[in-house]
Amino acid sequence: MVREVLSGDILPAREAIAAIDTTDLGPPNEIPEVPADAFPENISSEERQWFCEEIVRLKRERNALVLAHNYMPPDVQDVADAVGDSLFLAQKGVAPDADVLVEAAVLFMNQILAVMKKPHQKVLAPDLRALCSLASHADAGKIRAWKKEHPDGVVVSYVNTYVDVKAESDYCCASANSPQVIKYVFENHDGPVLFGPDVFLGLYAAKMLLGMGQSVDRLWLMMGACHVHERIRPQHLQEELAKHPDAVVAGHMECGCQSACLVPLMNSSEGRMRFLSTQGMIKFARETDAEKIIVATEVGNIYPMSKAAPGKTFIPASREAICPFMKQNTLRKVYESLRDLKHEITVDVELAKRARVPIERMLRIV
Ligand code: SF4
């Protein structure tokens, strides 16, 4: 009898890739409603101005730094001290001497700051419902069992994992540096390598291994995916490419999850596809000769791209690609977080000590 493959299962890469279409990779956790005020048109300009002035005042009063992921509502991005992807914000967050770090992002990113912070710092998350469907697929218990069976194995976890999974990992990577980290691990370790939880990014790792002339037999993958990027299907991109023959596609590497739609097109889009990190995507928007760019990621990323390249046309590959977790961080919640010093994110000391090792490697290998 063929065993049913479940989300979070760990399989040899060939079996995992073959099981993608038959495995339920839907969100394992509850999906919150997107709050109405996550959309700028639902807040009056007076209200927005009041929140912004209060946030600026509170930042000064509390010696606080506000960090925002590029999927945040535009008004949150505008009031932040730094906007970027998970790797960029982790680098920004560990550097300053601010007393308070408010990060409008998702919980696994707040946890990175909580692991790396200085003793006097407080890490705040504006809303505790800002989870992540991809991170929720990862199962630390299954990783422990795999390690027992493969004592010479190396675990590479994607940044979209909670601290208990990072604590079981040898390396961590973000999309922006996943090629470098994966290559480093393959070149410096001989044993089996487990990558998770994004099975689509795992497929990318398998292609890399083949490109290096190595067998994929040493690669194991965990079954997981992001429900937001899964909605961007190859046909969405093909339709937009046909409608806009002069456009190029910029696929964002943050969250890695868009690889579900990009990987099948990587070799078939006649050079019109770019596979980029957040900062790379913004730089690309500014520097490309193309006037039209199809954006294959969460729609929030169009805002910083438009700011970087005013006058160019940005077309979302799918208007439904909205992350309800990220969008819990509204301007009001950022204000309340600073006002009431909530919600403080802390991590168990022992877990933090272990998770620090792969996080530091992620920050080092860029
Ligand atoms: S877009 Fe997907 S991977 Fe990124 S935070 Fe949202 S659910 Fe997680």
Question: What does this molecule look like?
Answer:
- The protein is an alpha/beta fold and 366 residues long.
- It has helices spanning 13-18, 45-62, 74-79, 86-94, 107-116, 133-137, 140-149, 163-166, 178-188, 199-211, 227-230, 234-243, 259-266, 278-287, 302-308, 331-340, 349-364; strands at residues 10-12, 64-69, 82-84, 100-104, 122-124, 154-158, 171-173, 193-196, 219-222, 248-252, 273-276, 292-296, 313-316.
- The strands form three sheets. The protein has a five-stranded mixed beta sheet, sandwiched between helices. Strands 3-2-4-5 form a four-stranded parallel beta sheet, sandwiched between helices. The chain has a four-stranded parallel beta sheet with strand order 11-10-12-13, sandwiched between helices.
- Helix 2 (45-62) runs parallel beside helix 16, helix 4 (86-94) runs parallel beside helix 5 and helix 5 packs across helix 17 (349-364).
- It binds iron/sulfur cluster.
- Iron/sulfur cluster is lined by residues 106, 132-134, 160, 226, 228-229, 255, 257, 298, 323, 325-326.
- Iron/sulfur cluster (SF4) binds next to helix 6 and helix 11.
Q: What is the CA-based Rg, rounded?
A: 20 Å
Task: Classify the fold: give the CATH topology of the largest domain.
Answer: Rossmann fold
Distance between the termini: 45 Å
Strand content: 5-15%
The CATH level-2 architecture of the largest domain is identified as: 3-Layer(aba) Sandwich
| CATH level 1 class label of the largest domain | Alpha Beta
Q: Looking at the structure, what is the overall shape?
A: globular
Mean pLDDT reading: 90
| Uncertain parts | 254-270
